[in-house]
Write a structure and sequence with these properties.
There is one protein chain. This protein is an alpha/beta fold and 417 residues long. It has two domains: 172 residues, Rossmann fold (3-Layer(aba) Sandwich); 220 residues, 3-Layer(aba) Sandwich (Rossmann fold). 44% of the residues lie in helices and 17% in strands. It contains 17 helices and 14 strands. The strands form four sheets. A six-stranded mixed sheet has the order 3-4-14-9-10-13, with helices on both faces. The mean pLDDT is 94.
């Protein structure tokens, strides 16, 4: 089934309805953050970040590693789930939890680690929220025979020891963020010793650590190069849908920074397949309903160039919900444009709602989803219920971006409630 893996990544930028606003420095800046990117990000990764090419060839070595890591991932029909919902809709899901790292994050970790290795880098550094991205980087670095360091958002570090252990098994050094390792982390701890952390803080710590030690930084979401690499999901799904002679009408994915939703849906948007594209967030982190479209920093320290995006502000510290992958303050610039242009719809759900969705899916399909992915499942339930009420028969497809086998303590706590 390796023929389902695409040979090229898809870049949506040339197909947007209007130009993507470029990254920029703040007006009072005394140094170039673009030049900083040149010193901390692998050169080929940075080239792909700013490419205008619609399709970018996947290196042969990366193709081999994709296959090793579990690609192609299954496209499955959720028949038992459909029956439980009593819906005339067909529901399919792309199961990214079938990768060895347990989520979609490996799709960009592998090429970024590969390009870093090609430059002779000995260590890569990143941040992680729930731990899926950190796990993917740890595995990718191990496959490349280089070392890795991960700054993990403190609340997730404490809530998810299983993810920490998995990263350690792959050879990564893992620190809770804010940490005592960096000056920025120490500053945040002086302000609030009980700071639960955020992806923006962890990102700032990772970048500082890279600058101080001459390592390379791998980025997990928000930046367009990550969305480019994740397009392997949607391109693969298109090949699989063509194989079974089916075409989805509704495409759904959960959203932290936007990479898994974009990776799944952008190839469908670009090829004009489907009629609805639904991005799903947390109602505890109200990016869609409360965010403002403006230039903002991706990281809390303001070390990276400002991006024009829907954001809650770089200093926003989200509540300590368990869906750590959704606790980011902004949306990727291309996704922000698509939301503003109403090409992409959005929904937001609470932890209570997504728990019920996860439970129903586990009991009907046998797969325990990551809490982040359960947001997409909840949206699929809503669309399926609408179809029943309207007596319509849409084909619904969602990205099940990761499994929840390392999240059982969360489900146990929700069950106790």
């Amino acid at each position: 089934m390796i023929e389902f893996i695409p040979r090229y990544w898809y870049n949506i930028v040339p197909d947007l309805l209007r130009p993507l606003p470029p990254p920029r420095d703040p007006e009072d800046s005394n140094f170039s953050r673009i030049e900083l990117l040149n010193s901390i990000i692998p050169k080929e990764v940075l080239r792909q970040q700013f490419t205008a090419e619609r399709y970018v060839k996947i290196p042969d070595n990366v193709m081999e590693l994709y296959s090793l890591a579990g690609r192609p991932t299954p496209l499955m029909r959720a028949k038992n789930f459909e029956e439980a919902l009593d819906t005339p809709a067909k529901i399919y899901f792309k199961y990214e939890g079938a990768t060895h790292s347990g989520s979609h994050k490996i799709n960009t970790a592998i090429p970024q680690a590969y390009f870093a290795k090609e430059e002779g880098v000995e260590r890569v550094v990143t941040e992680t929220g729930a731990g899926q991205w950190g796990t993917a980087v740890a595995l990718a670095a191990s496959l490349m025979k280089i070392r890795s360091t991960v700054f993990m958002v403190r609340v997730s570090y404490e809530q998810k020891p299983g993810r920490r252990t998995m990263m350690n098994l792959y050879g990564a050094e893992v620190y809770p963020s804010p940490s005592e390792i960096t000056e920025y982390g120490r500053k945040e701890l002086r302000k609030n010793p009980s700071n639960p952390g955020s992806l923006g803080i962890a990102m700032s710590e990772a970048i500082e650590h890279v600058i101080n030690n001459g390592y390379r930084y791998l980025v997990g979401s928000v930046m367009e190069v990550v969305l480019l690499h994740q397009s392997v999901i949607g391109l693969e799904a298109i090949n699989q849908f063509d194989y079974i002679g089916e075409t989805p009408d509704v495409l759904i994915g959960c959203v932290g920074g936007g990479s898994n939703f974009a990776g799944f849906s952008y190839p469908f948007i670009g090829s004009k397949r489907g009629s609805r594209y639904i991005a799903v967030g947390s109602s505890e982190i109200k990016k869609f309903s409360k965010g403002v479209y403006e230039y903002d920093f991706p990281d809390s320290a303001g070390l990276l160039p400002m991006l024009k995006m829907i954001t809650l502000g770089k200093d926003y510290v989200p509540p300590p919900i368990y869906s750590g992958g959704l606790r980011y303050h902004g949306l990727a610039p291309t996704l922000s444009l698509l939301v503003r242009d109403k090409t992409v719809e959005w929904m937001e759900f609470s932890e209570t709602e997504i728990y019920e969705a996860a439970k129903l899916f586990a009991r009907t399909q046998g797969i325990v989803p990551a809490p982040e992915s359960a947001h997409a499942i909840m949206a699929a339930i809503k669309v399926a219920q609408e179809a029943r009420e309207k007596k319509e028969r849409p084909v619904i497809a969602f990205n099940l971006s990761g499994h929840g086998l390392l999240d059982l303590s969360y489900y146990q706590k929700m069950e106790a409630k």
